[in-house]
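Weekly structure sync, notes
Attendees: PL (lead), two postdocs, one rotation student
Agenda item 3: pending single-chain targets
PL asked that the sequence for the first pending target be pasted directly into the notes so everyone works from the same version. It is reproduced below exactly as submitted, 142 residues in total.
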Amino acid sequence: MKMTHESDLSRIGISLPKNLLDKFDTILEYRGYSSRSEGIRDAIRSYITYYQWMSDVEGERQGVITMVYDHEQRGLLQVLTEIQHEHLDIIQSSLHAHVTHDKCLEIILVRGDAGKIKKIAESLMAQKGVDSVKLTTIPIEE
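Predicted structure, written out during the meeting:
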């Protein structure tokens, strides 16, 4: 069986909106990356680490889900509300703020089973028009 190392490179092609790529390039320049490839590798490593961290969350947890989304996205507000209403047993409270004309910030306070909390975060994350979702939890110590 052949071991795969990070030095074994594969080429991929991706399509990105210009504004997203421009923001990415600005960050790359600010942080001193020598190439987009280096920045993309770092971003993918970070994404994998975050996913693994979320996978390790177990048991009863208290936490917050922080979400930024485009409230102009057709049908998004209704879907986000439905997702939250499906989980009234876990969601304790939410705070909504208007950041710009198009962007909203929502902070959702959650308490309950880690698997259910992760399911909510992942459901929110999967919606078109949601720019970012971050889940932060701590164990509930009795």
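Discussion points:
- Strands lie at 60-70, 91-98, 103-113, 130-139.
- The first helix runs from residue 18 to 31.
Action: rotation student to compare against the earlier draft before next sync.
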